[in-house]
Amino acid sequence: MTQRTPAAPRPPVDLRSDTVTRPTEAMYERMRAAPIGDDGLDGDPSVRELEAQVAARLGKEAGLFVPSCTMANLLAVLAQTQRNEQVVLESSAHMYTSERGAATFTGLFYLGVAGADGAMDLGRLEDALQGGGHRLKTSLVAMETSHNNAGGAVLPLDHMQAVHGMARAAGAAVHLDGARLFNAAVALGVAPGDIARHADTVSLCLSKGLSAPVGAVLAGGKSVMASARVLRRMLGGTQRQSGIMAAAGLEGVQAMGDRLAEDHVRARRLSDGVNRLAPALSATVPQTNIVQVETAGTGKGNTQWVAALQAAGLLVRPWGRTRLRCVTHRHIGDADIDAAVLAFETVLNAG
User: What is the pLDDT of residues 222-268, one digit of tens each?
Assistant: First the structure.
């Protein structure tokens, strides 16, 4: 009697982040064929092409390729501020909650302004912009869209316009943490440049939904980018034959933006599925590709939830004490979403 080979176990559904995306075959081909040079000496042609294309897409004069969006945000701060000045951000912004350690060596003070759905309260922003007397001068205001800690929320364009106008009137520059800027553009049905026009500098991550393996681009005016390029070297961010990586980023920027809508649809499918398990579980209704699941009513802590879901074939990340974060991406299909909902239901019913 012929023995059947046991079926290979199904790999877990990985919703920890869209940073787990792997390069496409087109990216690998472009990486193999990329013209390269020494970006720290006379320049790398593929890097220059990426920088120029991203700058053009965002309506800026120049771009700068860097290893990460965290470095891009830091360079934007350093290139547009002086020591003993103030940077104002929405109080749950990634630059404030996760990147604020940079303030320890910038000589700057980061001020968090409360808001809703990632959007700063404009009245509190106006107060923060008032300098003089004992107050620090605010030299930079930063926004984030889509907004990570607000569950992938997208800033309304009229809010961004108001923030930019208020900052400009107070003599402050505006930076946009656009790590998932293309997700925001898809959600709003506009071009990325229509969002970026409300900021002086913009960072764009290439290694999230756009699926490049690494890197980010900072875009802005020529003089600011020239300063940022010098600062990049000081921070150890100058890379040599980095055109190999830039080539993958080019493919991501040129070919991967429109498909992000699929991730948004699947995020809503996940949200709807989890919300059918109410009241014990509840999920945010996503604008983009991030869903937060509230577990407070289940009697289990997040450590238990993460471990139990992993045993059920689903990888998620704890997000605070009673929330889990799930992020859809290119490697997640409808069947994966259904499996994820089933995993939540299985763990919930296990008591």
Answer: 999 999 999 999 999 999 999 999 999 999 999 999 999 999 999 99
- Per-residue tokens: 322: 């009673």
AA letter at 115: G
Over residues 69-127, the pLDDT tens digits come to 999 999 999 999 999 999 999 999 999 999 988 778 889 999 999 999 999 999 999 99
DSSP line for 192-259: HHHHHTT-SEEEEESSSTT--SS-EEEEE-HHHHHHHHHHHHHTT---SSTHHHHHHHHHHHHHSSTT
Q: Position of tokens 């509840």?
A: 282
Alpha helices in the chain (DSSP H): 25-33, 45-57, 69-79, 94-97, 103-106, 122-128, 157-169, 181-188, 192-196, 222-234, 243-255, 260-275, 302-311, 334-349
Cβ–Cβ under 8 Å, residues 312 and 349: no
Q: Is 236 left (phi over 0), alpha (psi -120 to 50) or beta?
A: left
**CA 187 centroid distance within chain:** 14
The pTM assigned to this predicted structure is 0.94
Cα–chain-centroid distance for residue 241?
Answer: 25
For tokens 């400009």, what's the residue?
168
* DSSP secondary structure of 18-33: GGGPPPPHHHHHHHHH
d(CA 168, CA 162): 10
For residue 279, whether the previous peptide bond is cis, meaning omega lies within 30 degrees of 0, is: yes
Instruction: Read off the tokens for 218.
Output: 């900072």
Q: 143 with 155: CB under 8 angstroms?
A: yes
Q: Is 328 helix (H, G, I), strand (E, B) or coil?
A: coil
The token pair that represents 125 in the structure block = 């922003």
Nearest CA to 88 out of 172, 2, 203 is that of 172
Give how far the C-alpha of residue 175 lies from the chain's centroid of Cα atoms, to the nearest Å: 14
CA–CA dist 87, 96 (Å, integer) = 10
Query: How many Cα atoms occupy the beta-carbon half-sphere of 204 within 13 Å?
Result: 37
Beta strands 115-116; 201-205: pairing state: unpaired
